Amino acid sequence: MRFRCFANKTRAELERFIRMHFRPLAGILFLLVLHILPLPAQDYAQFNVFLDQNFASADQTVELFGGLSGHPDQVARLRGSQIALATTEYLAQRPLGFEDLEQSLEAAKYNQSQGDDPFRIGEARSNVGAIKELLVALRQRNFGQKVVSTVEQLFPPNARVTTRIPVYFVAFGHQNIDAYVQRIIWRGDTPQFVGEGQGEVTIVVNLSKAVGYGRELDERFIWLMSVVAHEVFHAAFGAYKDTSPVWRQYYAMRHTNLDRLFDLAHNEGIAYYLTLIQRTRGRLVMDWPDRVRTAFADFNRNSEELLSPRTSPNRIADLIRTANTSEYWQNYGAITGMIIARQIDNTFGRAALSETIANGPIDFFLKYIEVMKQQTDYPQLSPTLVQYIQQRR
After folding, report:
1. Per-residue pLDDT tens for 252-277?
2. Where are the domains of the chain?
3. Which of 126, 280, 300, 354 could share a disulfide with 382, CB 3.0–4.6 Å?
4. What are the φ/ψ torsions at residue 99 (nearest 5 degrees)?
């Protein structure tokens, strides 16, 4: 599972955070320039990624919030709604079913209390006007192609990627998630989440979180582009892996629990770095260095725990899950991977980072070991991890 997670902030806190850390006007102008100016010549003729955008759940949920039309049971049965339900159940670590979602939607239609509101439907209903405005912009501004053009620049030239990616837009979901990727096999209209190499890579975007990205529509649209680009990277990377002999051989090998964490850190790390490039042009700002050191310390400690034969299966599952499904700075696997991707790019260039997409996680970490030798003041992987990585080359 791949998730894009953010700290659980109030809307006012999020707006202050955005303006303090990311200077959104500059970020917006930077992204607009990326789509106006010609890019350096690269051959991406074989990068054929298409987004099949499905707005049914978001559209019908917005109508339902108005209280004049829509049927809660019909909205709950839509495929986008079903994926949002299943993911919320997984992240909330509690049983949630069709009836729970239907009751929450019915309460929203008649403006009744939501109780503990695991789907954050009350929050979404209070922002229905902004959600509706964003839905109109997504349809009118060639959203999908702009996202794909951004993502392809991270892949090796001549990378063979041909895929159509379903993108479901919804207007409710877990409090920490604004967009996420799943591999899905459908049983009728019920999703079953499956592992690498199986099912259909699918993206879900929660627009009720997107309205908190800024005060103006343009700001929200650009920020949402960066969020969805993050997820499209995951989906395109998954499609690339499915046809790559290197990756098929990699997944056919016997892997340790630590290899699972390395795979996550590689995949999430590059996606997080793509977001960092879009929002701050790759700069680390304010208190990030201290937070990064904490993430590396957690990564080293948890990695060594994953290597221990005494670690229980439940503990292993928790270590893998929390590497990227916690609040932003607690996503120790993703944050560590983001810094590794950034330092490879800054030290050896974009081609070296793209090579790791072709060659796999061990190449990603081996390149960072070379960075550590050149830049001893950068966050360090522990000697135990360095030895493990070098043995896996």
Report:
1. 887 899 999 999 999 999 999 998 88
2. 2-243, 253-391
3. 300
4. -65, -35
